[in-house]
Protein: Glutathione transferase
Amino acid sequence: MASAKQFVDEGIKKNHVMVYGKSYCPYCQRAKKLLEGETSEMEYIDLDKRDDGSDIQAYLKQLNGQGTVPHVYIGQEFIGGCSELQAVPKDELKKKLSKK
Structure:
């Protein structure tokens, strides 16, 4: 199995929209629903359903300083969590999602 660092780095690089969250987190579900309404090209990982989920979350915190979920990346850019995603103006979000 790939290390947490390798798994995260590859996920962010390979997927235009990459979200790391937890299945029971309402903010994760809200971010996922918002993005699903805008793009079909999203990869979503439930950290609580992976044996290495805590290692992945620790690496994500090290990477961007955020200890909570979700972690939203668009075009390899860290957007933030649900609040930060919701704060992105809709036209700007559409632009970010359409860039490849």
In short: The domain at 4-98 is CATH 3.40.30.10 (Glutaredoxin). The beta strands are 17-21, 42-46, 71-74, 77-80.
